[in-house]
Amino acid sequence: MEDPVPEQMRAAAGALLAALDEPARQRARHDFDDEPARRWLEYRPRPRPGVSLADLTLAARKAAHRLLATALSPAAYAQAMAVVALEEVLDRAESWQRGRHSGDYWVAVFGDPTRDDRWAWRFEGHHLSVSMTVVDDQVSPAPVFLGANPATVRHAGRPVSRPLGPEEDLARELLDAIGPAGRAAAIVTDEAPADIISATRPTAPGRLDPLGVPRGRLAPSGRALLDGLVALYLDRLPPELATREARRLAGGELHFAWAGPVGPGWRHYYRIQGDDLLIEYDNTAEDGNHAHTVLRRPDSDFGADVLAAHRSAAH
Q: What is the model's pTM?
């Protein structure tokens, strides 16, 4: 069965560009070969390539959201919209001093989606960065970053907002299930790093040491939970892409590493590494109430895999 996602992305990107006036289109459009702009990941509130949603008409903003929705499952799209809404919550918590707002998200298109065989796009702002590269109608879906500040908003001791809660809860279930011996191998340091280690680098590290505990050393319950945690991140993608990524990883070894205390409410971090796979999660800033998560492919981020196949076929 033919994958519908590339054509959906092509149609949505074309509709977005058609919805922009000429000045906005010029800000949104970049050459595919503009490597610094295309190989870009910035989840902090910084200037970035593209056009801001705040400067667009309602029709153009909706077109940008429809483009984003082609890259995310319904659940991940809901997480992304919760992340965007948190900008207003964070602005209030900071006494409206920094001018944060939910329109400060930017979209950029690289190449011409209506005619080029190599093109890409990105939707990005504070705590949200989704990059997709399409080459010869093959989608390379990474990096995908989601963060949340505050990670949890509570009322009367109960969470009213916790968009990245599943990513924390399932990892804690895994820690509980693997037992003392598994935890001894998985916990690589008692102190969590200040941020995800891949950070905003255009190229993710190919290997982060210590690797932690290998999947093959876990009991069946631990292996099932680790597989479920990987699936949680892959399921950020549309089903066609998530299934393809799961098939690619099938049979390969995975490693799970944790840093920091294991009890809730403390600063903590974990990562999962596999064949061309890096998943990172941290909740370390704001006394453990500021989360970052990312799905990356160190060898294939920003379309390196599909571009290599394209060049090989061309020659």
A: 0.97
